[in-house]
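Q: What would this chain look like folded?
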Amino acid sequence: IWLKGAGIGATTLRSEVTSTPGIIGPPHLGMHLSNFSLYRGLTFTALPGAAVAGNYGIYDKGLDAPDVIIERVMVLQFANSAIVVEGATGPRVIRDCPLTLNAGYGIEIRNAGVHVPQNVNVIGGSISDSWGGVEVKNSLGCHIQDVDIELQDNAKYPALYVHASSFGCQFSNLTVSIVAGSVVPLGGVIVLDGSAGNVFEGGINYCTEPTLPNVFLTGAGTQRNTFIGGAYVGAGVGASRYPFEISGATLTTII
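A: My prediction, written as C-alpha cells:
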C-alpha cells in the first residue's frame, strides 16, 4: 500500500477520531506513506491539554512487514505520540517528517512484550512543541540521525529517552534542546536507563532549564555507552546540573 499526497500542505488528511490512531498499519506486505499532512480534528488550534491513550498520529504495529517507509509526512495536534513503531519489525525508515504539537513523543520505538523492534532508521525531520522528542524502548540496532528536536516550556519528557535494554543503537548529528519544563523521568535532555552499547556522535545539546543536565545516565544496566564530540550548552550561572551526570551507570566513554 502506498498512500502518496501532492506534498505537505498540498494534501491534508484530518482525523476526527479522538481515542484511536489516525493511521494504523502496516498490512503484511508493507506500507509507504509520503507527502501529506495529518491533522487531528477539523481545525488546527494548539497542543492538546491532556494525553489520550491510543490517539497516535501513525501507529505501526510491527508484524515483521518489510518495506515500511514514512517520509515527508507532517503529523500534528494528536493527543499522544505522533508516530509509534511497536513490536517485531523488519527494516523501517522514517524520513524528513515534521512532527509538532503532539501530547506525547514525536516518535516512539518500543517493544510489545517479547517482540522487539530492530533496524528502525529515523533520518532528518523535526520534532517541536511536543511533550517529548524520541523514545527508544527495548529496541536493537536503531539509528537516529540529523533530527532537530526542540522542546519548549511544555516539555514533559526528555528530548531523547533510551531505556529498558536498548542495545547497539546509534544517534548522530542530533540537535536536542529543552527550554524549560517538568521532565519525567527526572533526568535531562538525553536520558539513558538500563541500556548498553549505544553510540552518540556529534550534534548540539542545548538546555536552558537549570534543574536539568544535558545528559543523564542511570541504572546498573547502563554500560559501555560512548559519546563522541558534540557541543553541550547548559543553563549557565546558577544552574544546579552538569553537562553529564552519571548515577549507577558504568564504563561510559566520553571523547
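Residues 150 and 177 are 5 Å apart (CA to CA).
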